Amino acid sequence: MRVFGFAGFSGSGKTTLIEKLVPLLVGRGLRVSLIKHAHHEFDVDRPGKDSYRHREAGCGEVLVSSSKASSASRFRSSKCIAPRAATRS
Prior knowledge:
Mean pLDDT: 78
Helix content: 10-25%
Strand content: 25-35%
Radius of gyration: 13 Å
Low-confidence stretches: 78-89
Largest sheet: 5 strands, mixed
Oligomer: single chain
Number of strands: 5
């Protein structure tokens, strides 16, 4: 297993970079999963949102987590097969 981390200010291009790297890694036969920390409330897998963009890039699993909630989704090609969400109290 290889682990890569990306950190930067909002709007610095992290998601765009990941969108370009994921297809290259998948094209080499690697399975790619992604964990994203959110500092705010978030919408999962909606067009334009990071989780959607990561899935479209080819991630097989996407986990988004914040201090208030988390959501994990597993994908087969472009279809979500096991979304889960939990809200923290």
